[in-house]
Amino acid sequence: MKIGVIADDFTGATDIAGFLVAGGLTTVQMIGVPEADAVVEAEAVVISLKSRSNPAAEAVADSLAALDWLRARGCGQVFQKYCSTFDSTAQGNIGPVADALLAALDAPITVICPALPVNGRSVYLGHLFVGQDLLQDSGMRDHPITPMRDSSLIRLMQGQAKGRCGLVPVAVVEQGAEAVRARIEALRAEGCAYAVLDAISDAHLDVLGEAVRDMALVTGGSGLAAGIARAISGGARAEALAQAAAEAGAPLQGPGVVISGSCSVMTNRQVAAYRAAAPTRDVEVEHCLADAEAYGAELADWVLAQPQDGLAPLLTATASPERLRGIQAAHGSAASEAVERVFAVVAHRLAEAGVTRFIVAGGETSGSVTQALAVTGFAIGPQIAPGVPWVRAVNRPLSLALKSGNFGAESFFFDCQPGVQSKGDGA
Ligand SMILES: Nc1ncnc2c1ncn2[C@@H]1O[C@H](COP(=O)(O)OP(=O)(O)O)[C@@H](O)[C@H]1O
Ligand SMILES: O=C(O)[C@@H](O)C(=O)COP(=O)(O)O
């Protein structure tokens, strides 16, 4: 195995798995740390954890268990995958996990690179941008669980991790892989354990991928993974792998459902566009808090009662920032947990009733749904949008599209169902 990825949520894991395939590496995604005797044949293995919002000690323990599994298989490089918007709670666990992985691997330094230019995430002089906005001015400042109010990766990392953090600025990246390696080595000599990598284009990611392909530990988003995969594969088999993915992971036929638990700016737009065309039911937080089991059963029955021949029905808890603020003032974090519990009940019941396609918006939401479906791993399929491939469960006939909150175009839920007519189309 060339690369072993430890991903802190499920959409993040499918995101990086899709980019590794696109970069030319055979890739398998596993749900949780696999059994010790699990046999997995691939150049890259992605272990999906649900640790992003967990206390640091738990995230560290889960990540070290994943590391043990990967190392037992002779994994060449370990990749700590976190969000391209560096999602972390106030007590942030990205730093503690990186500290623990560095120590366990006995590595002197690693890199911090959340850049994903194809989806508008760029790092310039150590500051993370989302589109034209600094992270702290983007929709991420209102995230229900991990609001991001600082854009300086150096400050964020030094706030969370034990090690000092330096910068490889874009001017060095522009000089090529050798200059990047020299700068990282200089930072190590100065006593830094972390080097933030600037990147504002795919060309920068190719330079960085070449520069860090032999490091024991790297950390970041799927952009860096794509750069490393291209550096390793030389891009030679990318087309053949894309073809294989299209065959192995293409969505199954059968009834589908859309489950939206993300409150991101883009998901709000996607839900607004889709609800105008497809059967839609709003998920009420008060009912989630009152009785998740009974309410989940009611919502599942509603989905099953919708026509099967049009656009898949939508269940949505997606809220605007203003509504979310009101809900959180009234119920705190219990609200988000209750919504996740209800979606887990819904997903379990729908799969038992024969639903085969689950289109899910939101990382935590995708984690709850996937765990409720008792999936052990995924074959990676074709990309619906950058960072969102179809994936097919290896142990059950189920197809999933796990969409990160901010990914996909406004038409994303339609893009998952090409050729299906909406209720107003006279179908
Ligand atoms: N109306 C709501 N009120 C409170 N919490 C909500 C509501 N809708 C969704 N949530 C919660 O917000 C969180 C969204 O996180 P996530 O699913 O990771 O989305 P994203 O990918 O946008 O980060 C989930 O825990 C979800 O249960
Ligand atoms: O890197 C990214 O942006 C995504 O892969 C990701 O981590 C998704 O997280 P959510 O936005 O919470 O779905």
From TrEMBL:
Belongs to the four-carbon acid sugar kinase family. It holds the Pfam family SBD_N. Catalyzes the ATP-dependent phosphorylation of 3-oxo-tetronate to 3-oxo-tetronate 4-phosphate. Keywords: ATP-binding, Carbohydrate metabolism, Kinase, Nucleotide-binding, Transferase. The keyword Cytoplasm does not apply. Residues 257-413 form the Four-carbon acid sugar kinase nucleotide binding domain. Its EC number is 2.7.1.217. GO terms for molecular function: ATP binding; kinase activity. It comes from Cereibacter changlensis JA139. InterPro entries: 4-carb_acid_sugar_kinase_N (IPR010737), 4-carb_acid_sugar_kinase_N_sf (IPR037051), NBD_C (IPR031475), NBD_C_sf (IPR042213), OtnK (IPR050007). Residues 3-227 form the Four-carbon acid sugar kinase N-terminal domain. This is 3-oxo-tetronate kinase. It catalyses: 3-dehydro-L-erythronate + ATP = 3-dehydro-4-O-phospho-L-erythronate + ADP + H(+); 3-dehydro-D-erythronate + ATP = 3-dehydro-4-O-phospho-D-erythronate + ADP + H(+).
